[in-house]
Amino acid sequence: MTVAVARNPYATNVSGSLIAAAGRLGVPVRPVDLPSLRLGIGPRGEEAVTDSAGPVVADSLAPYLLFGFPAAVHALRALARTTHAQNPVDGVLLADDKAAGAYRLAQAGVPQVRTEICPFDAGLVTAVAAEIGYPVVVKRAHGAQGRWVRRAESQQALATALAELAAEGPGALIVQPEVVECAGTSIRAVITGGPGRAHGSWRSTRARTSPACNRTMRPTSARRCCARPDDPRLAHRAAG
C-alpha cells in the first residue's frame, strides 16, 4: 500500500509528521507537491492527476491542508475517486474556511464567540471593531497555524494589523472580540468518517484576573477532565 501525502508549504509540519510516521511503520509514501498538483481531463473524460514529480498513483490519501492552492482541489477530488481518503475534499475546505465554519456552527446551534464576517475594507472593519469594542481579534477567513491572525487593542493597532494582512492579497476577514478564559474549560472532539473517535475537556485555571468576567482563577496547571454528556452530540451537529 502506498500513501499519498500532500505537502503544503504553509504547514510543512503536517506532511513532515505523516511522512516520518509512515517511515517508522514501513509504509511506502508518495509525496505530493501541492503547489504543482493539477488535473488533466481528456476529450473522452479520462483523468490524469500529476505534480512536478509526474503522475500521482497511490492507494490511500493522507489528511492534508489545502489552503493556498485552489487548482489542487480538483486534482484531489479526482484522486479521492481511486484512493481511500479519510477526509473528503469538502470537509477539508470547510475546516480551512473560518467564515464557513462559523456559519456551520451557527446552523448546528453550537454557541460561539461573536463573529463578524467582513470584506477586506479598512473603513468597514474599523467600524465593526468599534462596535464590538477593543481589544479585537482580526483574521483572514483562510490560513494556517495563526499566520494571519492579529490582535488589535486600539484603532491604530488595527490599522497596522490590516496593513500586514493586506500583503497576502484580497479575501474575507473575521472580526471577533478578544476572548479571555472565564470558565476555564476547553472542549476537544475528534470526528473521522462520521463517528466520534475521542472527546474530552481540558481545564486551565492559571492565576489571572479576567476582565471579561471579573474573576480570578486558581493557580493550578492545566488538567484533563471529563466531558459533559452533550459534548459529543454538539460536536456531531457541528460536523454535519
Helix proportion range: 25-40%
Taken as a percent bin, the fraction of beta residues is 25-35%
CATH class of the largest domain: Alpha Beta
* Number of DSSP helical runs: 7
Which CATH architecture of the largest domain is right? 3-Layer(aba) Sandwich
Distance between the termini: 31 Å
Q: Rg, please?
A: 21 Å
According to CATH, what is the topology of the largest domain? Rossmann fold
Instruction: State the secondary-structure class.
Output: alpha+beta
Largest sheet: 4 strands, parallel
* Mean pLDDT reading: 81
**Total strands:** 16
Question: Can you tell me the overall shape?
Answer: elongated
In terms of quaternary structure, the protein is single chain
In what order do the strands lie side by side in the largest sheet?
A: 2-1-6-7
Compute the number of structural domains: 3
Secondary-structure element sequence? EHEEEEEHEHHEHEEHEEEEEEH
Contiguous low-pLDDT stretches (5 residues minimum) are 206-228
Structural write-up:
It is a single chain. The chain has seven helices and 16 strands. It is α+β, with helices and mostly antiparallel strands. It has three domains: 3-95, 3-Layer(aba) Sandwich (Rossmann fold); 114-177, Dna Ligase, domain 1 (2-Layer Sandwich), CATH 3.30.1490.20; 185-239, no CATH class. The longest helix has 14 residues, at 12-25. Mean pLDDT is 81; it is low at 206-228.
Quick overview:
With about 240 residues, the chain is an alpha+beta fold. The protein contains seven helices and 16 strands. The chain has three domains: about 5-95, Rossmann fold (3-Layer(aba) Sandwich), CATH 3.40.50; about 115-175, Dna Ligase, domain 1, CATH 3.30.1490.20; about 185-240, no CATH class.
